[in-house]
Amino acid sequence: xxxxxxxxxxxxxxxxxxxxxxxxxxxxxxxxxxxxxxxxxxxxxxxxxxxxxxxxxxxxxxxxxxxxxxxxxxxxxxxxxxxxxxxxxxxxxxxxxxxxxxxxxxxxxxxxxxxxxxxxxxxxxxxxxxxxxxxxxxxxxxxxxxxxxxxxxxxxxxxxxxxxxxxxxxxxxxxxxxxxxxxxxxxxxxxxxxxxxxxxxxxxxxxxxxxxxxxxxxxxxxxxxxxxxxxxxxxxxxxxxxxxxxxxxxxxxxxxxxxxxxxxxxxxxxxxxxxxxxxxx
Length: 281
Known about the structure:
The chain contains 6 helices and 12 strands. The protein is α+β, with helices and mostly antiparallel strands.
């Protein structure tokens, strides 16, 4: 009986979202007291919010433009992987134009994952960050981040930050291959989360950390990120485009790169790759 009531509540949520989603979010976004957000462009469905945001950035849309979709039919993750984006999730991409040198852009995934993790934690869930950009609850993925940028003559033209969060989705909405490794706020909390409230919370939290980033408070960002990391201290296998690195994830450096003490006694500095925890293999 309890499951039936919970399931019916989710059906009502989806029905309301389908009927009024675009107008509701567009109107609500204007009430968010953000120093960053300038406009929200809302769609019922998109192939990819990141792709749309890149188009808008290249057409001259300013920093603070947010693209939102109720669902993505061709959502993208890292390394051109598919990001499954059924209705009920929160899928948004934000255009950024930080006044920084390109070498500091590698810290933006930390800024984004901190904002996502802290927002989820404010709902009572112990979310942690798996390097480089997965947010997890009970070691199951609940959110992911994808950053894409354009750099011209050593100057950042734009960065598009894509965030996908399994908000009010049910596990059966995902492919069988993913069902054992993912979760959602709805699944963990046993109830639907108000979309508008969560959207406001995550934008304001990102606003806070992005402001720290813009003001060069890199040490604080790195320190807070490490407190929420479930990778640092773990024995890991890192798969890069050219190598397989095995050892202990000992730290991250000032650029957000993972430092791995290998079994052969080397200290490897890794910018990107797939990170596997031996404790979960």
